[in-house]
Amino acid sequence: MIDTQLRLGDRDPRPRRRGLTVVIDPGLFTGHFEDAIDSVGEFVDLVKFGWGTCLVTKDIKRKIDILRGAGIGFYFGGTLFERYALDGLVSEWLTLCRVLGTTHVEVSNGTIPLNNTEKARWVARLTGEFLVISEVGFKDIRRSDSLAPMNWISFIEEDLAAGAHLVTAEARESGRSGMCRADGQPRHELIDEILGSGIDLDRLLFEAPNKDLQTYFLRRMGTSVNLGNVRADDVIALETLRRGLRSDTLLEVS
Fold first, then answer.
1. pLDDT, tens digit, for every residue of 74-83?
2. Predicted confidence band at 11 (pLDDT cuts at 50, 70, 90)?
3. Residue 150: how many other CB atoms lie within 10 Å
4. What pLDDT was estimated at residue 179?
5. What percent of the chain has pLDDT over 90?
6. Region 108-132: what's the mean pLDDT?
7. Taken in order 112, 58, 205, 254, is the CA torsion positive or negative?
8. 176 close to 170: Cβ distance less than 8 angstroms
9. What is the mean pLDDT of residues 96-116?
10. Helices (H) and strands (E) in the chain — how many of each?
11. In the chain, is it the N or the C terminus that has fewer CB atoms within a 10 Å radius of its CB?
């Protein structure tokens, strides 16, 4: 970065505990992926290989080596856990995670019929071996809309008590489910309830795949909010939002 006397937003150096930027890889070409990590890796805290892309990416090991060289941790999306769990093959999923050397694992129940207590049991089982990221919220918009704020809070607290390193607040890669409505607008009343619950915000990861959601969470919770499902080519733009270099957050940070 260029030296300046501007009062920019404070950013902890990596490894950070707060202000995390978690990038989603939806299946980028490996050359593009390598260029992205080389260019913006200093602002990336974790990479999530979305869905089950690790199973159909022929050079996934090359991508993992790129991240190791950059000192960036990685994990596979929770949907992959759910697919293995649905088929009764969690042991095979664990072997995959061990063989590929994941630093974190994600446990979710956004699609399959797995209640939160059962999900929390998986979190507890895995905590001794991995840093576990759980997820609260559903992929289906109707199920999400019917999940009351008190249930969101109790599910988050249950996962944290089970040993979750972080709890992800669902929004999908589209930003149109979970904490968001079908039109992409945040569920303000839900977010207000969570903020008023006393849950440590540093333990929450809010999925924010677009600028509108990123700006909303930064304004609502401060520049050190943890944000996930960030596209690789949006990392620099997000960093300028965190540092008050765009009109959207300039007055909040300066």
1. 999 999 999 9
2. confident
3. 10
4. 93
5. 86
6. 97
7. negative
8. no
9. 96
10. 12, 8
11. N
Q: How far is CA 124 from CA 81, 149, 201, 220, in A?
A: 15, 24, 21, 31
Give me the amino acid identity at 109.
N
* DSSP tag of 42: G
DSSP state of 233: G
pLDDT exceeds 70 at position 204: yes
- Note the pLDDT of residue 14: 85
Edge-first strand order for the sheet with 204-207 is: 73-76, 46-49, 21-25, 227-230, 204-207, 166-169, 131-136, 104-107
Q: Which CATH number fits domain 21-253: 3.40.630.30, 2.60.120.260, 3.20.20.70, 3.40.50.170?
A: 3.20.20.70
CA dihedral 127, 27, 205, 42 (to 10 degrees): 100
Rg of the Cα atoms in the chain = 18
What is the model's pLDDT at position 254?
A: 57
Contact residues for 115 (Cβ-Cβ < 8 A; gap 6+): 109
**Amino acid letter at 240?**
T
Q: Do residues 85 and 121 lie in contact, with contact meaning Cβ atoms separated by under 8 Å?
A: no
For residue 165, give both structure tokens.
Answer: 């390193």
